[in-house]
Amino acid sequence: MISMNYRRKVLTLSFNYFLYAVVAAIFILPMAYMFVSSVKTDAQIVADMSTLKAFLPNGRLSLENYGTIINHVHFFKFFKNSAVVAIINVSLITLINAMIGYSLGMLDFRGKKLLISLIIALAIIPTESVIINRFLIVHKLNLLNSYWGLALPTVGYPMFIFLYYNHFKGMPKELVEAAIVDGESYAGVFWKIMLPLSTPILSTVAIMGFIRSWGDLLWPTLVTRDETYRTLPLALRALSTDVYVFWGQIFAFTSLMTLPILIVFLIFQKQFIQSLTMSGIKG
Questions:
Q1: What domains are there in the chain, each with its CATH number?
Q2: Please, how many CA atoms are within 13 Å of residue 202, restricted to the half-sphere of its CB?
Q3: Is 181 in contact with 253 (CB distance < 8 Å)?
Q4: 50-54, 77-81, 276-280: which range is least confident on average?
Q5: Burial environment of residue 214 by CB neighbours within 10 A (0 to 12, 13 to 18, 19 or more)
């Protein structure tokens, strides 16, 4: 006869898997809806929108929406702009914030605690409250409507600095002391020892920074003046007008726009999960 403990374990396990399935569906179904709708006509999308058919590839299916956004909306032109901005932004985010986090986490200097408190305070201040000041600085530096104007002002990010600070704070200081005794500089310790040991947190910040840069709409709206440096979110907004919403093109556009994020996460998911696990253990 099956014991009560065994039944309880089976019920608990089944309930946990049910919750996992529900959470997975919450994240997967919107993407499935997006990819399926991208190969439907506008009329079919509107007809299926309030039914379960919205998640199914029914009706007349074609790649016409993809052809339109590639040939007429010039998707790859805006893709190049977003890619250049993201590469500049992510490269600087991972290195500059790592340098600051290394200094705060492993070095001792006067005013360190005050500086950490200020960074934590800055992390809760909304971006919208400082974006006008940021815009005025970029304007004074003549960086409007340029890749550098899009990428540079969003490099310093308090949350990323705090992540690096927590990471380096948990690293053994004996490594630094031993390297200094051997004649290595603090900069050399950072580049030769600490950075190679920080692959998980570097990957995490790079993924988060890439997603933040790739989907940013507010800052490019202020900085760009024409289509020359327009990024993907701005180009996507142009597909919705007061007269007509091009649903099929919008879903095709967002599908292609989402693919790089999924690819980046799949490549670095091991390091990303490892970083979250290590942060959880330290916490």
A1: 73-238 (1.10.3720.10)
A2: 15
A3: no
A4: 276-280
A5: buried
List Cα–Cα distances, 6 to 1, 2, 13, 93, in angstroms: 10, 7, 11, 51
| DSSP for residue 38 | T
Vertex 149: Cα angle to 145 and 151 (nearest 5): 125
State the pTM of this model. 0.82
Which residues contact residue 104 at a Cβ distance below 8 angstroms, ignoring those fewer than 6 apart?
112, 115, 116, 119, 161, 164, 165, 168, 169
**Phi, psi (5° rounding) for residue 240?**
-110, 115
Please report the pLDDT score of residue 256 as a whole number. 92
DSSP letter string over 78-147? HHHHHHHHHHHHHHHHHHHHHHHHHHHHH---TTHHHHHHHHHHHHTS-GGGTHHHHHHHHHHTT-TTSH
Q: Are 224 and 231 in contact (CB under 8 A)?
A: yes
Task: Say if CB 40 and CB 59 are below 8 A apart.
Answer: yes
Give the rounded distance of the alpha carbon of 15 from its chain centre.
32
What six digits make up the tokens of 158?
A: 């308090």
